[in-house]
Write a structure and sequence with these properties.
Blueprint lengths: L5 E9 L4 E10 L5 E4 L6 H9 L6 E6 L2 E3 L4 H10 E4 L13 H11 L6 H14 L16 H13 L5 E5 L7 H16 L3 E5 L3 H7 L2 E6 L2 E7 H6 L4 H8 L8
Parallel strand pairs: 3-8, 3-9, 6-7, 7-8
Antiparallel strand pairs: 1-2, 1-4, 4-5, 9-10
Helix pairs in contact: 3-4, 3-5, 4-5, 5-6
Bound molecules: adenosine-5'-triphosphate (ATP).
Protein backbone atom coordinates (compact mmCIF):
# COMPACT_ATOMS: atom_id res chain seq x y z
CA UNK A 1 0.00 0.00 0.00
CA UNK A 2 1.36 3.43 -0.84
CA UNK A 3 1.56 6.03 1.92
CA UNK A 4 -0.76 9.03 1.77
CA UNK A 5 0.69 12.15 0.22
CA UNK A 6 0.21 13.93 3.52
CA UNK A 7 -0.52 12.61 6.98
CA UNK A 8 -1.15 15.06 9.78
CA UNK A 9 -1.13 13.54 13.25
CA UNK A 10 -2.40 15.23 16.43
CA UNK A 11 -1.07 18.56 15.28
CA UNK A 12 -1.05 21.35 17.83
CA UNK A 13 0.22 24.89 17.69
CA UNK A 14 0.28 27.57 20.38
CA UNK A 15 1.36 31.15 19.64
CA UNK A 16 1.65 32.42 23.19
CA UNK A 17 -0.90 31.01 25.59
CA UNK A 18 -4.06 29.86 23.87
CA UNK A 19 -3.71 27.01 21.39
CA UNK A 20 -4.46 28.02 17.78
CA UNK A 21 -4.63 24.32 16.79
CA UNK A 22 -5.29 21.22 18.89
CA UNK A 23 -5.23 17.52 17.97
CA UNK A 24 -5.67 18.13 14.26
CA UNK A 25 -5.42 14.86 12.33
CA UNK A 26 -6.19 14.10 8.70
CA UNK A 27 -4.71 12.47 5.64
CA UNK A 28 -4.59 13.64 2.05
CA UNK A 29 -4.31 10.99 -0.62
CA UNK A 30 -2.79 11.77 -3.98
CA UNK A 31 -5.34 13.47 -6.24
CA UNK A 32 -7.82 13.99 -3.39
CA UNK A 33 -7.97 17.76 -3.01
CA UNK A 34 -8.81 18.95 0.49
CA UNK A 35 -10.81 22.05 1.39
CA UNK A 36 -10.33 23.59 4.82
CA UNK A 37 -13.18 25.77 6.04
CA UNK A 38 -13.93 27.57 9.27
CA UNK A 39 -14.70 31.00 10.64
CA UNK A 40 -12.14 33.73 11.04
CA UNK A 41 -9.64 32.76 13.73
CA UNK A 42 -10.40 29.02 13.43
CA UNK A 43 -6.73 28.27 12.71
CA UNK A 44 -6.81 27.77 8.93
CA UNK A 45 -3.82 29.96 8.10
CA UNK A 46 -1.85 28.53 11.01
CA UNK A 47 -2.49 25.03 9.67
CA UNK A 48 -1.32 25.99 6.17
CA UNK A 49 1.84 27.54 7.64
CA UNK A 50 2.60 24.25 9.37
CA UNK A 51 1.95 22.28 6.17
CA UNK A 52 4.40 24.55 4.35
CA UNK A 53 7.05 24.22 7.05
CA UNK A 54 6.99 27.97 7.78
CA UNK A 55 6.51 27.12 11.45
CA UNK A 56 7.16 24.01 13.51
CA UNK A 57 4.23 22.39 15.32
CA UNK A 58 4.13 22.60 19.11
CA UNK A 59 2.87 19.01 19.24
CA UNK A 60 2.22 16.21 16.76
CA UNK A 61 3.72 15.81 13.34
CA UNK A 62 3.40 15.73 9.58
CA UNK A 63 4.45 12.89 7.28
CA UNK A 64 4.93 13.51 3.59
CA UNK A 65 4.88 10.39 1.42
CA UNK A 66 5.22 8.33 4.60
CA UNK A 67 8.31 10.18 5.83
CA UNK A 68 8.25 12.40 8.96
CA UNK A 69 8.89 16.03 8.02
CA UNK A 70 10.90 18.21 10.40
CA UNK A 71 10.62 21.90 9.49
CA UNK A 72 13.58 22.59 11.77
CA UNK A 73 15.92 20.59 9.52
CA UNK A 74 17.22 22.86 6.74
CA UNK A 75 17.81 20.06 4.24
CA UNK A 76 14.33 18.66 4.90
CA UNK A 77 12.86 22.13 4.50
CA UNK A 78 14.54 22.57 1.15
CA UNK A 79 13.24 19.20 -0.04
CA UNK A 80 9.83 20.23 1.26
CA UNK A 81 9.82 23.30 -0.98
CA UNK A 82 10.01 21.05 -4.02
CA UNK A 83 7.21 18.93 -2.51
CA UNK A 84 4.79 21.71 -1.51
CA UNK A 85 4.35 25.21 -2.93
CA UNK A 86 1.96 27.97 -1.98
CA UNK A 87 -0.43 30.47 -3.54
CA UNK A 88 -1.76 33.30 -1.39
CA UNK A 89 -4.82 35.47 -1.42
CA UNK A 90 -3.57 38.74 -2.79
CA UNK A 91 -2.06 38.60 -6.28
CA UNK A 92 -1.18 42.30 -5.99
CA UNK A 93 1.15 42.10 -3.01
CA UNK A 94 2.56 38.62 -3.69
CA UNK A 95 4.41 39.59 -6.91
CA UNK A 96 7.46 41.88 -6.86
CA UNK A 97 6.52 44.83 -9.15
CA UNK A 98 10.18 45.47 -10.10
CA UNK A 99 10.76 42.04 -11.57
CA UNK A 100 9.45 40.82 -14.88
CA UNK A 101 7.20 37.79 -14.93
CA UNK A 102 9.94 35.49 -16.21
CA UNK A 103 12.12 36.42 -13.25
CA UNK A 104 9.22 36.02 -10.80
CA UNK A 105 8.16 32.62 -12.12
CA UNK A 106 11.73 31.29 -12.25
CA UNK A 107 12.49 32.26 -8.63
CA UNK A 108 11.88 28.76 -7.18
CA UNK A 109 14.17 27.25 -9.83
CA UNK A 110 16.96 29.60 -8.72
CA UNK A 111 16.46 29.35 -4.98
CA UNK A 112 16.06 25.57 -5.07
CA UNK A 113 18.88 25.10 -7.62
CA UNK A 114 16.56 23.11 -9.85
CA UNK A 115 17.62 24.48 -13.20
CA UNK A 116 21.12 24.26 -14.51
CA UNK A 117 21.05 26.41 -17.63
CA UNK A 118 19.39 29.62 -18.78
CA UNK A 119 17.70 27.80 -21.63
CA UNK A 120 16.31 25.13 -19.30
CA UNK A 121 14.96 27.88 -17.04
CA UNK A 122 13.32 29.63 -20.01
CA UNK A 123 11.76 26.36 -21.19
CA UNK A 124 10.38 25.55 -17.75
CA UNK A 125 9.02 29.08 -17.28
CA UNK A 126 7.37 28.96 -20.73
CA UNK A 127 5.73 25.63 -19.97
CA UNK A 128 4.49 26.84 -16.54
CA UNK A 129 3.03 29.97 -18.20
CA UNK A 130 1.35 27.83 -20.84
CA UNK A 131 -0.06 25.52 -18.14
CA UNK A 132 -1.77 28.49 -16.46
CA UNK A 133 -3.10 29.87 -19.74
CA UNK A 134 -0.74 32.82 -20.21
CA UNK A 135 1.12 33.55 -23.47
CA UNK A 136 4.87 32.86 -23.53
CA UNK A 137 5.63 36.58 -24.08
CA UNK A 138 4.15 37.28 -20.63
CA UNK A 139 7.65 36.46 -19.33
CA UNK A 140 8.97 39.79 -20.67
CA UNK A 141 6.23 41.87 -19.06
CA UNK A 142 5.71 43.25 -15.55
CA UNK A 143 2.97 42.48 -12.97
CA UNK A 144 1.26 45.89 -13.33
CA UNK A 145 0.46 45.02 -16.95
CA UNK A 146 -1.83 42.19 -15.81
CA UNK A 147 -5.30 41.96 -14.27
CA UNK A 148 -5.92 40.42 -10.84
CA UNK A 149 -6.88 37.06 -12.33
CA UNK A 150 -3.83 37.05 -14.61
CA UNK A 151 -1.62 37.91 -11.65
CA UNK A 152 -3.03 34.98 -9.75
CA UNK A 153 -2.15 32.84 -12.79
CA UNK A 154 1.41 34.18 -12.56
CA UNK A 155 1.51 33.25 -8.85
CA UNK A 156 0.24 29.77 -9.73
CA UNK A 157 2.87 29.44 -12.50
CA UNK A 158 5.56 30.31 -9.95
CA UNK A 159 4.16 27.68 -7.58
CA UNK A 160 4.07 24.88 -10.17
CA UNK A 161 7.40 25.59 -11.84
CA UNK A 162 9.37 23.33 -9.43
CA UNK A 163 6.78 20.59 -10.18
CA UNK A 164 5.53 20.19 -6.62
CA UNK A 165 3.20 17.38 -5.61
CA UNK A 166 1.14 19.58 -3.31
CA UNK A 167 -0.25 23.07 -3.87
CA UNK A 168 -1.28 24.85 -0.69
CA UNK A 169 -3.62 27.75 -1.46
CA UNK A 170 -4.81 30.28 1.10
CA UNK A 171 -8.00 31.98 -0.13
CA UNK A 172 -6.70 31.96 -3.72
CA UNK A 173 -9.81 33.51 -5.27
CA UNK A 174 -11.28 35.73 -2.61
CA UNK A 175 -9.59 38.90 -3.94
CA UNK A 176 -11.05 38.30 -7.43
CA UNK A 177 -14.38 39.13 -9.02
CA UNK A 178 -16.89 36.35 -9.53
CA UNK A 179 -16.25 35.40 -13.16
CA UNK A 180 -12.48 35.47 -12.63
CA UNK A 181 -12.94 33.26 -9.57
CA UNK A 182 -14.67 30.63 -11.64
CA UNK A 183 -11.84 30.59 -14.18
CA UNK A 184 -9.12 30.33 -11.52
CA UNK A 185 -10.99 27.47 -9.83
CA UNK A 186 -11.22 25.78 -13.27
CA UNK A 187 -7.47 26.26 -13.68
CA UNK A 188 -6.76 24.70 -10.27
CA UNK A 189 -9.08 21.81 -11.17
CA UNK A 190 -7.26 21.23 -14.44
CA UNK A 191 -3.90 21.25 -12.66
CA UNK A 192 -5.18 18.73 -10.15
CA UNK A 193 -6.36 16.49 -12.99
CA UNK A 194 -2.79 16.79 -14.29
CA UNK A 195 -1.40 15.26 -11.10
CA UNK A 196 -1.12 18.08 -8.56
CA UNK A 197 -2.96 17.71 -5.24
CA UNK A 198 -4.47 20.90 -3.82
CA UNK A 199 -5.11 21.84 -0.20
CA UNK A 200 -7.15 25.01 -0.17
CA UNK A 201 -8.47 27.30 2.52
CA UNK A 202 -11.54 29.15 1.36
CA UNK A 203 -14.47 30.81 3.00
CA UNK A 204 -16.20 30.34 -0.34
CA UNK A 205 -17.90 26.97 -0.08
CA UNK A 206 -18.60 27.07 -3.84
CA UNK A 207 -14.86 26.97 -4.48
CA UNK A 208 -14.46 24.06 -2.09
CA UNK A 209 -17.40 22.20 -3.65
CA UNK A 210 -16.01 22.67 -7.17
CA UNK A 211 -12.42 21.77 -6.37
CA UNK A 212 -12.20 19.43 -3.39
CA UNK A 213 -13.06 15.77 -3.00
CA UNK A 214 -12.80 16.14 0.79
CA UNK A 215 -13.51 18.92 3.26
CA UNK A 216 -12.34 19.52 6.80
CA UNK A 217 -14.13 21.91 9.13
CA UNK A 218 -12.15 23.72 11.81
CA UNK A 219 -13.68 25.43 14.79
CA UNK A 220 -11.44 27.20 17.28
CA UNK A 221 -8.43 25.11 16.34
CA UNK A 222 -10.17 21.73 16.39
CA UNK A 223 -11.49 19.53 13.60
CA UNK A 224 -15.23 19.26 14.15
CA UNK A 225 -16.06 17.40 10.96
CA UNK A 226 -14.34 15.98 7.90
CA UNK A 227 -15.38 13.80 4.99
CA UNK A 228 -16.29 13.73 1.30
CA UNK A 229 -17.30 17.27 0.28
CA UNK A 230 -20.58 16.35 -1.40
CA UNK A 231 -21.84 14.40 1.63
CA UNK A 232 -20.62 17.00 4.09
CA UNK A 233 -22.31 19.88 2.30
CA UNK A 234 -25.51 17.93 1.63
CA UNK A 235 -25.91 16.67 5.19
CA UNK A 236 -23.61 18.43 7.64
CA UNK A 237 -23.54 16.58 10.93
CA UNK A 238 -21.97 19.11 13.22
CA UNK A 239 -23.96 22.20 14.31
CA UNK A 240 -20.95 24.39 13.50
CA UNK A 241 -20.87 23.13 9.88
CA UNK A 242 -24.60 23.83 9.60
CA UNK A 243 -23.97 27.32 10.89
CA UNK A 244 -21.22 27.86 8.29
CA UNK A 245 -23.52 26.66 5.51
CA UNK A 246 -26.35 28.87 6.72
CA UNK A 247 -24.00 31.86 6.62
CA UNK A 248 -23.45 31.51 2.84
CA UNK A 249 -25.16 34.50 1.24
CA UNK A 250 -27.81 33.59 -1.34
CA UNK A 251 -29.41 35.73 -3.97
CA UNK A 252 -32.99 36.60 -3.07
CA UNK A 253 -35.48 34.40 -4.89
CA UNK A 254 -38.10 36.01 -7.04
N1 LIG B 1 1.14 35.82 15.03
C1 LIG B 1 0.21 35.49 15.93
N2 LIG B 1 0.41 35.71 17.26
C2 LIG B 1 -0.52 35.38 18.18
N3 LIG B 1 -1.70 34.79 17.87
C3 LIG B 1 -1.97 34.54 16.58
C4 LIG B 1 -1.03 34.89 15.53
N4 LIG B 1 -1.58 34.52 14.35
C5 LIG B 1 -2.78 33.99 14.63
N5 LIG B 1 -3.02 34.01 15.96
C6 LIG B 1 -4.22 33.48 16.63
O1 LIG B 1 -4.36 32.10 16.31
C7 LIG B 1 -5.73 31.77 16.06
C8 LIG B 1 -5.85 31.18 14.66
O2 LIG B 1 -5.53 32.19 13.68
P1 LIG B 1 -5.46 31.90 12.12
O3 LIG B 1 -4.94 33.14 11.46
O4 LIG B 1 -4.75 30.63 11.87
O5 LIG B 1 -7.02 31.72 11.79
P2 LIG B 1 -7.77 31.72 10.38
O6 LIG B 1 -8.78 30.63 10.48
O7 LIG B 1 -6.78 31.64 9.27
O8 LIG B 1 -8.48 33.12 10.38
P3 LIG B 1 -8.81 34.11 9.12
O9 LIG B 1 -9.88 33.41 8.32
O10 LIG B 1 -9.31 35.36 9.77
O11 LIG B 1 -7.53 34.30 8.37
C9 LIG B 1 -6.51 33.06 16.26
O12 LIG B 1 -7.04 33.03 17.58
C10 LIG B 1 -5.48 34.14 16.11
O13 LIG B 1 -5.82 35.26 16.90
Amino acid sequence: MTAPLLEVRDLGYTYRRDPALENVSFTVDRGQNLGIVGESGAGKTTLLRLLLGLTRPTTGGIDTDGVPFDAGDRAALRRHRTFAQAVFQDPYSSLDPRQNVGRIVSEPLRSLHLSTTGSETRTRVASALEAVGLPADAAERYPHEFSGGQRQRIAIARAIVPRPQLLVADEPVSALDLSTRVRIVELLSSLSIGGLTVVVVSHDLGTVAALCERTLVLERGRVVEQGPTAALLAAPEHPYTRKLLAAVPRLPRR
